[in-house]
Each structure stands twice: as structure tokens, then as C-alpha cells.
Amino acid sequence: MSNQKLFNIAVVGATGAVGEQIIRLLEQRNFPIKELKLLSSARSAGVKIPFKGQEVTVQEATPDSFEGVDIALFSAGGDVTKALAPHAVNAGAICIDNTSAYRMDPDTPLVVPEVNVDKINEHKGIIANPNCSTIQMVATLKPLYDRYGISRIIVSTYQAVSGVGAKAIHEMLRQSKEVLAGNDANPDILPVGSLPVKHQIAFNAIPQIDKFLDNGFTNEEMKMILETKKIMGDESIEVTATCVRIPVVYGHSESVYVELKEDFDVEEVKTLLADAPGIVLVDNPAEQQYPLATDAAGKLETFVGRVRRDLSNPKALNMWIVSDNLLKGAAWNAVQIAEYIAIEQ
């Protein structure tokens, strides 16, 4: 991208877990940056973050922060996006948002570049990054959708605590030490910080991510259901999800059952997956090779394995999908979108 024009970039939520990864990726990918503006809450303003051998001072994000900014990458919570993104758009910036604020807005493209990169050009100033669990699933299923069609998806997720943030990581590690020492875990954050009941995450699995809705599903589960239909551009796909938090630091894992519309050959399916952009096939049961969260951590790709025909439905497949939730699940997907914008301009 060395012959590209240079862009003024703003990262909102620069000191958060996803913001830090976005900054790291912009540096590693040598994104064509003229000026990098790092923005955060007043609490984190003044922090210095290294970038390309220099230190960039974090500034407080305000409505006036976006003058001259070409691309603004948001990862500071939905309320911050709703408060500041319209000001960024008015100032002429294209916003790439990692929160749920605009995902289901009919005028906002919801983009996974491997699936629907063409939607980027339909933006009206804001492009939404999907939920981390949704991204890795649809990126994997896209080649199968194109080849065979998909009628139904049943997904169970096993999600890392880093999806909640640094405090949840620290809570899991602290609880693990306490439990091993024979003490009470004293949960303080999970499953949902704003709800009164907290559960131990160390040595446990919590079948609740986000708040419950009246239909018995959680917000996280409904995100996967609704976002999958929007990204695939197919409301006819039946999707159901159960989202579970487990004591893993980085990397979401998913057990996915998918019903295809056409007959398939399992080896052809594996070839399609292996050849798909951003997907790595790790599927050798004889050698106990399959995707692991510990292997996916720190990697940009999405890993798929345990691919097998369902025993009760000959048109259905089962598979296991793993990806780093802070990278492809958030920061990398956003930077991919920014790279596409840079190339197009």
C-alpha cells in the first residue's frame, strides 16, 4: 500500500483491549497514515502509546475531535459511538464501529470482508463491525452458502473472558488462584457487570452472555441470529444460538451444525473451506489435530475442523470454528475494512 495516499486516522477507545489491537495492526500492516489521533475517555487522556518508534498521547474524545479525520475506528462502547459518530461523519470521516450501536440499522452496512465486502461502498458515513462470534461463523460458512445454500444453523459458543474486557481476565485469573487455594471465588463481574447476580467463571461454564430478553434468549444470542441473516443477505436462513462463557483468555470456539440445501461431498466441503480467504482448515482426527483457542490466540485467521456429515441428516454438517475474538472478531475485521477503503480511494 506504499503508493497510496495517506490518511488521517482516529482510534476511539485507544486504551481498551480492542483499541490496543487496532493500533498494533495499523503499525504491523503499515497502514498509510498521515496522522494518528488516539482518543479515549477523560480518565485515560494523557496516556502515551508507542507507534512506529514514537509516542502518541491519548486525547479525550469530544464532538470536536474529528476535524480532518478520514477514517475513525470506534471501539469504546455503543453509547460513545452514538454520541460521537454523527459528529465524526459530519466532519467528513468514515466511521468503522466495533459496537452494536448501528449493526441492525437498515442504512448501515454490516461487513465481514470475506463475506460481503461490496456492502462497504453503500455506507452513509458509518460501517458496522459485527459481533465477534458472528464474524468467525459467517466467514467460515460463506463458501458453503455460495456452493450449496444454507437453510439452518444451530450454534453453541464457548467464549473467552477477554470478550468482556481486561477486568474479566483478571477476575478469572484471581478466582482460579482463590479456588486452588481453597478459598471462595467471590465473583464480581461475570456474567454481566450491571446485573445483581454474579457467578464464578474459574473452572466453570456460564450459559449467559449479556442480558436475557423476553424470548428467553440473550442479547448475544440474538446478535448472532439477526446479524447472520443481515450479513448473508438472506432472511430465510434459520439460526439459533446458545452462547456460553468459559474460562479461556483469548479465542472464541463454536460448535456449528449447518443444514445445506444441496447434497455435498465432505471432502469437497473441506477443500472449499481450505481455499476460503482467511480460513485455515485444521482437520486431522487421526493425529488429534483440530482448532484450539490456544493456537488461534494472536492469529488473524479463523480456524475450522471436526468437519463431518451429521448422522441423522445427510444434508447437514457439524464443525468446530475457533478464532481470536479480539483480532478477527474485532480489531482485524475493522482494519480490513479500513484497508479496503484506503485501496478504493
Helix/strand-derived category reads alpha/beta
Shape: globular
Strand content of the residues, in percent? 15-25%
Q: How big is the Rg?
A: 20 Å
Largest sheet: 6 strands, parallel
Helix content: 25-40%
Summarize the structure.
The protein is of the alpha/beta class and 345 residues long. It has helices at 17-28, 78-90, 113-116, 132-148, 166-180, 219-232, 266-275, 293-296, 327-344; strands at 7-12, 33-40, 48-51, 54-57, 59-60, 71-74, 94-97, 126-128, 150-159, 238-245, 252-260, 279-281, 302-309, 316-323.
Question: Could you characterize the architecture of this molecule?
Answer:
The protein has nine helices and 14 strands. With about 350 residues, the chain is an alpha/beta fold. The chain has a six-stranded parallel β-sheet with strand order 5-2-1-6-7-8, sandwiched between helices. It has a six-stranded mixed β-sheet with strand order 10-9-11-14-13-12. The protein has a two-stranded antiparallel ribbon with strand order 3-4. The longest helix is centred in the last third of the chain and has 18 residues, at about 325-345. The model has no long low-confidence stretch (mean pLDDT about 95).
